[in-house]
Amino acid sequence: MEEKERFVTKITPKSEDYSRWYTEVVRKAELADYTTVKGCMVIRPYGYAIWEEVQQRLDRRIKETGHQNAYFPLLIPESLLKKEAEHVEGFAPQVAWVTQGGDEQLEERLAIRPTSEAIICSMYSKWVRSWRDLPILINQWVNIVRWEKVTRLFLRTTEFLWQEGHTVHASEKEAEEETLRILEVYRDSVENDLAIPVIAGLKTEREKFAGALSTYTIEALMTDGKALQAGTSHNLGQHFAKAFDIRFEDKDQKMKYAWQTSWGATTRLIGAIIMTHGDDSGLILPPKVAPIQLIIIPIPATGWQEKVLPLVKELERRLKEIGLRVQADLREVYSPGWKFSEWEMRGVPIRLEIGMREVVEKRVVAARRDTGDRMLLPLDNLEKEIPPLLTEIQNNLFNRAKKFLQDNTHTIDDYDEFKEIINTRGGFIYSFWCGDPECEQKIKEETAATIRCLPLESDHASGSCIRCGRPSDQRVYFGKAY
User: Fold this and answer.
1) Class of residue 177 by CB neighbours under 10 A (exposed 0-12, middle 13-18, buried 19+)
2) Rounded (10°) angle between helices 268-277 and 382-407
3) N or C: which end of the chain has fewer CB within 10 A?
4) Residues of the chain with pLDDT under 50
5) 277: exposed, middle or buried (C-beta count within 10 Å: 0-12, 13-18, 19+)?
6) Contact 257, 238 (CB under 8 A)
């Protein structure tokens, strides 16, 4: 009985305990689980299947912009990591070190990559000689280790999966164009594949990537009112090129330092999907990244194996032939109601129900996970009916999330109101800021809110800083964040 109750057990409502709801969804939908290694998780097959869909779509977008995949070592010599001082200082508290190999103490510590700028730049310094060698456009899909004190499945773990791009250019203009090009790739991927609306903008000096000239970000808003950084793109300037001596002979026959970028997105995107779309019944997956887009459930009755089962298998075959990810649940040890609850928990976009009545009437019951609506569809026309329905679900999830973002973005000019909203409702607060890092820090200390980004396009308004009252010519987005 314990096994049969595994998925039908209710989960904690979001409104009661959001953090507990999130963890229960991750574990009961079998996306990931805790391990004996503190701060690390196992990504289970269903969770990894979601990551594969996200990864494949993003990888295709990256390659379409001219980038190639490669692989660089996991271990980075300490002397190499320390070549860029500001970068090292930014990551020092999170670096894990290897000090022994086999039975021997290492002469030099090896860092387990917290990010790969150092090791990749050491190679670029060998490969770049002339302007003809540029640009270098490389991406890699790897694991990263950062020694986190507080962890949460998918959102922040000691080890996680990501892609990191590292490019080299001949000019500042080319590097900036690359940085913004990738930011748009991220925005397009998250909004159109994951159905999560984002705000794109520039990080402040205090919040930018260690060692970068500038950092751009896409920020999503979760349904508990907290922001989630969904992807970042960094213009590294010439900082790393000078530290690692990445120089080239330009067309004018002068030696010049290269310009670089780096950018990344991680498995926290799965956490973003859960928190943006999930409800009190579990996951709701956007069809584009759902490992199973349709689940077909036969309804047992006398003679069902002779009449219903062949039809179920035929429909599975037909829908797979048009490129849909479909699965028939033929397990006889579970009731249809139990299966309904399980696949609801797993967030499958469409459920098809077929019993003896449907065979006679030549139609199927279709249930939408996003709205719960049920409808009758003709059996002989499913190839035409299902794809538009999946598109409708994808669009509905995005529009629903976009409305939530709009309804929870507040334009505020009074600091007391700012604090009241941040502490009670959350969301993004769009307010004037004077540009002073000290004022930024005070706001963080007093409200726990950080500047999520400076919008790429200013509204050209002028006013007074939300905290200190000094003149300001730009509003920025504040929010509490994961």
Assistant:
1) middle
2) 90
3) N
4) 1-6
5) buried
6) yes
Do 294-389 and 409-479 come out as alike in CATH topology? no
Q: Which CATH number is 18-277's, of 3.90.980.10, 3.30.930.10, 3.30.360.10, 3.40.1210.10?
A: 3.30.930.10
Contact 276, 196 (CB under 8 A): yes
Map out the domains of the chain as residue ranges.
18-277, 294-389, 409-479
Protein fold of 409-479: Translation Initiation Factor IF3 (3.30.110)
CA 123 – CA 321 distance, rounded (Å): 45
Overall size of the chain counted in residues? 482
pLDDT of residue 91: 82
DSSP 8-state symbol, 113: P
Cα separation, 28 vs 8, whole angstroms: 10
Neighbours of 46 (CB within 10 A): 16
Locate all alpha helices (DSSP H) within 78-195, ordered by sequence: 78-81, 85-91, 117-127, 172-192
SS3 category, 214: strand
| Distance from C-alpha of 95 to C-alpha of 81, rounded to nearest angstrom | 10
Which amino acid would we find at residue 34?
Y
Nearest to 13 by CA among 226, 287, 307, 224: 224
Q: For the purposes of burial, counting CB atoms within 10 Å of the CB of 45, is it exposed (0-12), middle (13-18) or buried (19 or more)?
A: exposed
- In this prediction, residue 132 carries a pLDDT of 98
Neighbour count for residue 477 (Cβ, 10 Å):
23
Is the Cβ–Cβ distance between 236 and 167 less than 8 Å?
Answer: no
Is pTM beyond 0.70 here? yes
Instruction: Note the pLDDT tens digit of each residue in 13-64.
Output: 999 999 999 999 999 999 999 999 999 999 999 999 999 999 999 999 999 9
Which pair of structure tokens corresponds to residue 191?
A: 């909004």
What are the tens digits of pLDDT across the range 301-349? Answer: 888 889 999 999 999 999 999 999 999 999 999 999 999 999 999 999 9
Query: What is the DSSP secondary-structure string of 385-437?
Result: HHHHHHHHHHHHHHHHHHHHHHHTEEE---HHHHHHHHHHT-SEEEEE----H
CA-to-CA distance for 473 and 432, rounded, in angstroms?
7
The yes or no reply on domain 294-389 and CATH 3.90.76.10 is no
Output the six-digit token pair for 24: 């229960």
